[in-house]
Amino acid sequence: FPFDYPHGRQEIAYEPGICPVAEDVLNRLVIIGITERYSEKDVRYVAAEVHKAIHQLSRRAHHPGWATTEQAKYRAGIIGCGAIARDHAAAYQAQSDVELAAVADISPDAAKTIASEFTVSRCYRDFEDMLANESLDIVSISTWPGLHAEMTRIAAEHGVKAILCEKPMATNLGDADQMIRVCEQNNIKLIIAHQFRFNPYIDKARQLIASGAIGEPELIWGHWDSSLLNRGTHVVDAMRYILRDPKTEWVLGQTERKKDSYNRGHRVEEIAQALIQFSNGTRGLLESGDLAKSDFSLHAYGSEGQLTVTLDSLLLHGGGRKGWQPMHLSPTKEHTAVVTELVSLLNDETKSHRGNAHQARMALEILMAIFESARIRGVIRPPLTVKESPLDMMVETE
Question: How far apart are CA 276 and CA 254, in angstroms?
Fold first, then answer.
C-alpha cells in the first residue's frame, strides 16, 4: 500500500504513459464478477448478456447507421446453398428488420450463386467459420437432414437466438431429441420449416374443422407419391395441423423397400401406408410412395360433411350446403410467413410459432412409428422408445 505504508515511498504518480501496455489493456477491459454460488442458469444468463453486448457493439462499429436497441436488425446466415436456400434467402430479404449477412456451403460455386442472386457480401466454405466470424442471430440449416443435429449443436454453441431448420428435422428420434435439448439449454428458438402450416388453404381447412363445418372429424386421408422422410413428412404434419395437433394413440404401418434407395443421404422406402389413431378420435390414413396418388391432398370426412384441400384449392361439402363449395384465397409465400412469425417470436410479439420443434418431433415420431411397425409387424403405441431409424435397423439386420 504505497500511499500509507510508513516505510514506503510517499510520492506516487501514475501519469499517462508510465505503463503503456497496462493502460491499453485497462481501456479495453471488462471485469465480470463470478462466485461459486452461481448456478448454471446464472452463468448462461451472464454469457447471453455478454454475447448481446458484443453483438450490438460489433454492429455499431461496422455499420454506424444501424440502431443499437432491441429493435435493431437481426443478422441471418444460411448453411447449405441448394434449391431450398433460395426460399430462405427470399424470406429473410422480405423482412425489414433482418439482414442476410452470410451464406455457407462446401461448394464455393453454390454459395457464390446464392450470394450473387441475393446480394450477400460474405460467403464461406466452412459453416463453422461463418458462425465464428459473423455474430449471427438467426441461422437457417438447409442441408441434408442427416446433418441437422450436429449443425444445430454447433450453431447453438455460437450463441444464436434462433435456428430455422428444414424438414424433416432429423432422420431419427435420437437426433431430434438432441436438437431440442441443446436449444432449450441455450435458450434458442428451434423452428422447423414445415411451411404447409402457413399455406392459406391448409390454414383455412384447420379453421373450418375447428368451427364444426364438417361436424366431428372422423377420417383424414392424405397422400403424396414420395418417401416418408421427403414429402411424407409434409403430409403427416399437415394432417396434424388441420386437426389442431392432437397426440397419437397408435400407428399401424407397412413399407416396401426392394431397391437400395436413398434420398439426400438417408435410406428411403419405395412404398409406405399407415393407419394412425389420433387422440381426438380421428383416424388418419396415409399413402406415400409409388402406389400413392401423385399430388398432395388431404381429404377430411366428418359426421356432417367433408372437405378436400391441396396447396392451391379447397372444396367444402356439408353444413346444409348443396354440392361442393370451392374457396378462393390469396396466395402466400410460405417461407416468408415462417420467417415473419419467427421475427415476431424474437420480438416477443407472439409467444409461440406454428413450426416449433416439439410439433415437428411429433410428426417425425409418427414416421418412425410406421417404420417400427413394419419392422416388428405390429401396432406401435407412442411414446416410441427406439431412438435409431427403424428403417436402418431393418436394412442392417437383413
Answer: 12
Q: What is the pTM of this model?
A: 0.82
pLDDT tens-digit series, residues 108-165: 999 999 999 999 989 999 999 999 999 999 999 999 999 999 999 999 999 999 999 9
Does residue 168 contact residue 288 with C-beta atoms inside 8 Å?
no
Give residue 94's pLDDT: 93
